[in-house]
UniProtKB/TrEMBL annotation:
Family (UniProt): Belongs to the neurexin family.
Disulfide bonds: C875-C902
Organism lineage: Eukaryota, Metazoa, Chordata, Craniata, Vertebrata
Record keywords: Disulfide bond, EGF-like domain, Membrane, Repeat, Signal, Transmembrane, Transmembrane helix
Keyword ATP-binding: no
Top-level taxon of the source organism: Eukaryota
Laminin G domain sequence ranges: 132-312, 319-489, 736-902
Name of the protein in question: Contactin associated protein-like 5a
All residue ranges annotated as the F5/8 type C domain in the record: 1-126
Domain Fibrinogen C-terminal residue range list: 527-579
Main location: membrane
Bias-annotated ranges (Polar residues): 1191-1200
GO cellular component, one term: membrane
Membrane topology listed for this record: Single-pass type I membrane protein
Length: 1217
């Protein structure tokens, strides 16, 4: 329906052919009055008739009264509407959600370059009627039931409200049993308290609330819908919904006598825990289909009206918004004050931690009074000699309105914030203002301040107790301003909805938000990327050895990580998932009527276990079952007497094999049962012990979730059983590959569904100079990843802000027929592109741009959908999108020009090169590139070792730190950068020494930070990390007296520090120690005597570099340095045989992160045999260790003083937790 409208220009200049403002208008806008509140669904614009004037983009605001305005934003948060490109065409814009309003305001952003602003508008929608009631903070509506109590299992409550107060009760009802329902505004958010007969909650002093919404005290209408069925509840505020379940066993809500709306008439009733009554307006209030306001207006007896009015005449407070952190200001002249001094009061709200709020020049220069927000507190500064400062308030940047008052009368300065006690400072002389008062920043001619300018909203300004009319400022009658919006508080909650993934904590300032990913197991701008590998097989490919690791089977998906044991043998890599009942269990006295039942809880969730099983090539679980006079099956009717439940809680009665066979044991499958008349040894019902152990390997049934034993009630009858851990090997996704033989061929998959975030990773190898890896299109949006030239990989996309391009160039060509890794990620904060180990490229998203990626076509792999783009020729493997691996091999089987798998020696699951060595295809075989490995030899398994004495040292100097790089893109507001620091540092080395204390390794940065690993006198190895001149002592590694045992310990350390811009790494004695602490200096002077072997730092092998590049400027060698085979000799059985009691071996894994320092220490004692048991222990080391004694500052006794110790220390990736 076309709406009648009246247009009012922001100036007096109108024309018959449309609206056009005066050239001098500072903030032009066109305002539309619809006459009454309407429901607006769309708008259309057109340029001024027969002219070169039009508006190419604009903002849309709405208001009920024409005073308090609110910006309309589309679903993705963008507020910019596309306008016209000429004066005659009509451009329609459908609103993502309808607006119920009387006034609309069109604010131009861009317009015709060949003319001027010109606008004609149409508004589409329909009429809107509502029942309205107003509450004054002391009034309420009571809906009284026909009976004493109302018991409901289903409730639907809906209403709309608006208020300028952040606190207030909208709805309350309670019953004598303890049930209650309360809906209240608290700190500008909506809290729902709901209890259905839960005694624990009745006794609780702090009931738990479900919270939805934010900034709901903005004087604009907000819709609320509560839907409850039994314990399932949906709470919706505007477009945000929270789904939850009530606690306890109750299913019905029992409320006595009445429901109150707008407040509680009798405060202090049992169960009441609320603050204050609601002050504002409600409309269309329905309780289970009953129109409460209509009943009240018609004075029905079941409604008691307590001093309410049936209209909404809330005063509209005029606020102004400070938009710029550098140039926004409001200048107001000082009002006369006969008593001397001056006073200023106002209210403000902001998200920023810092900002200049108010300043004024005083009568004697250079005195100046400034009020600013500093680290979320208010700081009042009087710039004189001496300076006077006072601080007040806490978290004043929480987005809520705060009242502040500054009074300099009566020879004192008084600062008051909200309801806190005032802070008063006496003065020697009366302060007088000289000139104007500035709010926010100030003009460059009046002040010079380095403080950032206030960004936020200000309202209710009083100067010397006189109110300030901001309309006069806007009209040019009073004061001056810059970069302000009037009649609105245009604040946004950028953490609603929370776009931080995987439980990341969202924080914000005025223009953006950030995510704290600490403790989530994920990283990145929105906590999207998992820190862990997807499988044990993936860890093996990184050069890791056996141990406990956190794996994330669905990558960046919702599942999360789980801790498993990775047993990396020569033939296979086993993933081991343990459960809670590992010891053998003896069962007696059970029967079918009273069976023995044992449930198994695994270290991973059911979803994680299923993902691991699906990803694996093979899984199995051992069942050890020993019986005596106890049958598995009834010999009469064949019904099972014992059974187990599979992962789906289904009953299974077979006891071995990979194919489910009813009522069979392993002996039946192998044909060696003791009694050939039975399918199980136990069914012979013998008085002697029998064994029906077997291996379960049918993946769809694994793991065993429960076992039931029902035949041990007879005399002499018993069973001893043991259910082993779930064990899987192989990763089907890693080598899932396809070969593309024709440029016109491609694999088709469903369209990518990833509006807000996605990541794509894969490996490729090719000899072609270019080709499209994958592409997904829609009408406007698209994504494309391609090899654009022999050395360049390009990631391009468009989410509605114009095409954006990221490129990574490799110096050696990428079409060398070797495997190369590509990973792209896009989220609402940034996009990134990774190629092999080249520096990561980033592209920041526009602050207020479109967020949602809308794709409609199929995903093309191996070719673009545009005919002129060249298809890909070569191999692609391990293609994963947001943690889901695409099955290339199956698609290739039904696609012409594409074949499953990829030929070549380096394309199989068998690792031909070890310890991070890279397999390189040759025409007649392969070679191993060990340049990024700390090992050498044909397959990168030969240890590289060096003997040190006290004066020996090796320093590897890294190239100058990566600088921030700009990437040319058509997206001008965006910035591309190359990562200047890693999210973690991965280090590994092994050593043999009899010296204590000893300096093992130090890492220094260009910013005077360092990390040191030291072997202390008592055999512990502490790690020190100093960042920003603060030393963090992390842990001790106890290395002595741990012989013939394998011990695994896990450490998690949290730090807000960052080890960035790494400059050098030193092995052995440290010469320059200006920035080191005293304890580290003492160890550094001792140097190191012994053998260092296989040193790895990230992707650099500094020890090997020192041996192979002795003349390099990057390597500095001091003292004697002799290449040796001491590392290999240390692991030889002949070397260890004669000194077995004196040799201890330890393996330690450590990772240092940017936002969190998470450390994993794996101690592994090795002797001649390698089949020792493995134990996992948790260790929390106290921070008050006596390190000075350990390093030798104080004499100490060491029982193993003369025994030589071999220690393998590996600082490994975060996944190895």
């Amino acid at each position: 329906e076309y709406l009648w409208l009246t247009a009012r220009a922001s100036t007096n200049d109108t024309a018959a052919g449309g609206w056009s403002p005066e050239i001098s208008d500072r903030q032009p806008w066109l305002q539309v009055d619809l006459g009454e509140r309407m429901e607006v669904t769309a708008v259309a614009t057109q340029g001024r008739f027969n002219s070169q004037d039009w508006v190419s983009s604009y903002l849309l605001f709405y208001s009920d009264t024409g005073r308090a305005w609110k910006q309309h934003r589309q679903e993705d948060g963008g507020g910019r509407f596309v306008g016209n490109v000429n004066s005659e065409a009509v451009v329609h814009n459908k609103l993502s959600h309808s607006v119920r309003t009387r006034f609309l305001r069109f604010v131009p952003l861009d317009w015709s370059r060949s003319g001027w602003l010109g606008l004609r508008v149409e508004v589409y929608g329909c009429s809107f009627k509502s029942d309205v009631v107003s509450f004054d903070g002391g009034s309420s509506l009571l809906y009284r039931f026909n009976q004493k109590s109302m018991s409901t299992v289903k409730d639907v409550i809906s209403l709309r409200f608006k208020s300028r107060q952040a606190e207030g009760v909208l709805l309350h009802g309670e019953g004598q049993r303890g049930d209650y329902i309360t809906l209240e505004l608290h700190e500008g958010k909506l809290d729902l308290h709901l209890n259905l007969d839960d005694s624990r909650l009745r006794l609780s002093s702090s009931p738990v609330a479900v919270t939805v919404g934010s900034l709901l005290d903005d004087q604009h209408w907000h819709s609320v819908l509560i839907e409850r069925f039994n314990r399932q509840v949906n709470l919706t505020v505007d477009s945000h919904t929270q789904h939850f379940q009530t606690k306890g066993e109750g299913l019905s809500l029992d409320v006595d006598y009445e429901l109150s709306f707008g407040g509680i008439p009798l405060p202090g009733k049992p169960g009441t825990f609320l603050r204050k009554n609601f002050q504002g307006c409600m409309e269309n209030l329905y309780y289970n289909g009953i129109n409460i306001i209509d009943l009240a207006k018609r004075r029905k007896p079941q409604i008691h009206s307590g001093n309410v009015t049936f209209s909404c005449s809330q005063p509209q407070l005029g606020a102004c918004t400070f938009l710029s952190s550098s140039s926004s200001f409001l200048l107001l002249p000082g009002a006369a004050n006969t008593t001397g001094g001056f006073s200023v009061q106002f209210q403000f709200r902001t998200w920023n931690q810092d900002g200049l709020l108010f300043s004024v020049q005083l009568n004697s220069e250079p005195q100046r009074l400034e009020l600013q927000i500093t680290k979320s507190r208010l700081l009042l500064t009087l710039n004189m000699k001496p300076n006077v400062k006072c601080s007040l308030g806490d978290r004043v940047n929480d987005g809520l309105w705060h009242s502040v008052s500054v009074d300099t009368r009566q020879l004192q300065i008084t600062l008051t914030v909200d309801n806190e006690p005032a802070s008063t400072t006496p003065l020697w002389e009366q302060l007088e203002s000289r000139g104007n008062f500035y709010f926010g920043g100030c003009s460059s001619t009046d002040c010079l301040t380095s403080a950032p300018v206030f960004q936020g909203c200000i309202q209710l300004i009083f100067i010397n107790s006189q109110p300030v009319d901001l309309n006069h400022v806007q009209q040019g009658i009073l004061g001056n301003y810059n970069e302000l919006q009037f009649d609105m508080c245009n604040i946004r909650d950028r953490c609603l909805p929370n776009l931080c993934e995987h439980g990341g904590h969202c924080s914000q300032n005025w223009s953006s938000f950030s995510c704290d990913c600490s403790g989530t197991g994920y990283s990145g701008a929105t906590c999207h990327s998992s820190l862990y590998e997807a499988s044990c097989e993936a860890y093996r490919l990184t050069g890791s050895s056996s141990g406990f690791y956190s794996i994330d089977p669905d990558g960046s998906g919702p599942m999360g990580s789980t801790l498993v044991y990775c047993n990396m043998t020569e033939e296979k890599v086993w993933t081991v998932l343990s459960h809670n009942n590992t010891a053998p269990v003896r069962v007696q006295g059970s029967s079918l009527h009273k069976p023995h039942i044992m449930k198994f809880n695994y270290s991973a969730s059911a979803e994680q276990i299923q993902a691991i099983i699906t990803r694996s090539e093979h899984c199995q679980q051992e069942v050890v079952y020993n019986c005596r006079k106890s049958r598995l099956f009834n010999t009469k009717d064949g019904s099972p007497l014992s059974w187990w439940l599979d992962q789906g809680e289904e009953k299974q009665s077979y006891w071995g094999g990979f194919l489910p066979a009813a009522q069979q044991c392993s002996c039946s499958l192998e044909g060696n049962c003791k009694d050939r008349d039975n399918f199980c040894n136990c069914d012979a019902d013998s008085d002697t012990w029998a064994n029906d152990s077997g291996i379960l390997s049918f993946k769809d049934h694994l793991p065993v979730s429960q076992i039931v034993i029902g035949d041990t009630s007879r005399t002499g009858s018993e069973v001893i059983y043991h259910i082993g851990p779930l064990r899987c090997y192989g990763d089907k996704s890693i080598w899932n590959a396809a070969s593309f033989h024709e440029e016109s061929s491609s694999l088709l998959f469903p369209s990518l569904q990833a509006e807000l975030s996605f990541d794509i990773s894969f490996y490729f190898k090719t000899s072609a100079p270019s080709g499209v890896f994958l592409e997904n299109l829609s009408i406007k949006d698209f994504i494309r990843v391609e090899l654009s030239s022999p050395s360049v990989v390009t990631f391009s996309f468009d989410v509605g802000n114009g095409p954006a391009v990221l490129s990574v160039k490799s110096h050696p060509p990428l079409n060398d027929r070797q495997w190369h890794y590509v990973r792209v990620e896009r989220n609402v904060k940034e996009a990134s592109l990774q190629v092999d180990q080249l520096p990561l490229r980033f592209l920041e998203a526009p602050a207020n741009g479109h967020r949602h990626l809308q794709l409609s076509s199929q995903l093309f792999v191996g070719r673009g959908t545009v005919s002129q783009q060249r298809g890909f020729l070569g191999c692609i493997r391990t293609l994963a999108i947001s943690g889901v691996t695409l099955d290339l091999e199956e698609k290739a089987k039904i696609t012409a020009g594409v074949s499953s798998g990829c030929p070549g020696y380096c394309s199989g699951s068998n690792s031909l090169c070890h310890n991070r060595g890279r397999c390189i295809e040759k025409s007649s075989g392969y070679i191993c590139d060990c340049s990024h490995s700390a090992y050498g030899g044909p397959t990168c398994k030969q240890e590289v070792s060096v003997s040190f004495d006290r004066e020996s040292s090796v320093t590897f100097t890294f190239l100058e730190p990566f600088s921030v790089m700009r990437n040319r893109s058509s997206q001008a507001p965006s910035v591309s950068r190359e990562s200047s620091s890693r999210a973690r540092e991965d280090m590994a080395f092994s050593f043999i020494t009899s010296q204590r204390p000893a300096m093992l390794l130090t890492v220094s940065t260009f910013s005077q930070q360092y990390m040191a690993v030291i072997l202390a006198r008592n055999g512990t190895s502490p790690v020190w990390l100093t960042v920003d001149h603060v030393t963090h002592f992390f842990f001790d590694l106890f290395l002595l007296n741990q012989i013939d045992q394998d011990i695994h310990r896990k450490y998690t350390l949290t730090s807000n520090t960052e080890l960035a811009l790494i400059g050098s790494l030193t092995l052995g004695k440290v010469i320059r120690m200006e920035e080191f602490s005293e304890d580290v200096m003492h160890a550094g002077l001792k140097g190191f005597i012994g053998c260092l072997s296989s040193v790895q730092f990230n992707h650099v092998a500094p020890l090997k570099a020192a041996l192979l590049n002795r003349g390099s400027s990057l390597v500095t060698i001091r003292g004697p340095l002799v290449q040796s085979n001491c590392g290999e000799l240390a692991t030889s059985p002949h070397t260890l045989q004669g000194n077995a009691q004196g040799v201890a071996t330890a393996v330690v894994f450590i990772t240092v992160c940017v936002l969190a320092v998470m450390t994993r220490l794996l101690y592994q004692q090795r002797h001649v045999q390698k089949n020792n048991s493995i134990k996992q222990k948790e260790h929390k080391h106290s921070m008050d260790t006596d390190y000075r004694i350990d390093t030798g500052n104080t004499p100490t006794q060491t029982p193993c003083k003369n025994k030589k110790t071999e220690n393998f220390i590996s600082l490994s990736p975060l996944g190895q937790m």
